[in-house]
Amino acid sequence: MEFQPYIENRNVTNRICNCGDDHEIKIIRGMLHYSEDGFAGFCAGLLEDKDSKHVWLSLITGEWPGTGQSDCYITADIWTNSEGRTMKIEDSRNSPFEPSEVFDSFPVSREQVIAVEGAKEWFIDTYLKLFEVDKEIGGYLTSA
After folding, report:
1. Which domain, by its residues, includes 116?
2. Does pTM top 0.90 for this prediction?
3. Phi and psi based region of residue 112 (left: phi greater than 0; alpha: psi -120 to 50; beta: remaining)
4. 12 within a domain of the structure (yes/no)
5. Residues with Cβ < 8 Å from 22, sequence gap 6 or more?
6. pLDDT tens-digit profile of 71-95?
């Protein structure tokens, strides 16, 4: 039987975004099992700001090279434009997440992600699996 990705311990909260604008952000957290032996904690933030929807996504990676930290997280901003869906790895410190929402992990910078061969591809593959498994997160950018 082929492995089917799944999520465990999914929880949802709403709060005012910490960006300084007066809008809410829906925070969805859980553990994505993306392969038989691969899993990652995630924190997704669904928000609409100035008529533009965004999914901010942080994936917990465990140890990251050169950080000396055992639990780290990578962050991306995902949105749509006239050309389709766009994803940009961001400095994790710039995410809208509170430390507890990303499991008190260490924020990895964009440069640290780009410097590790295969890291961006892993993030893309993993976020695409999350979007397939979690219909709320995956469908957010295309919902009315």
Report:
1. 6-142
2. yes
3. alpha
4. yes
5. 16
6. 999 999 999 988 889 999 999 998 8
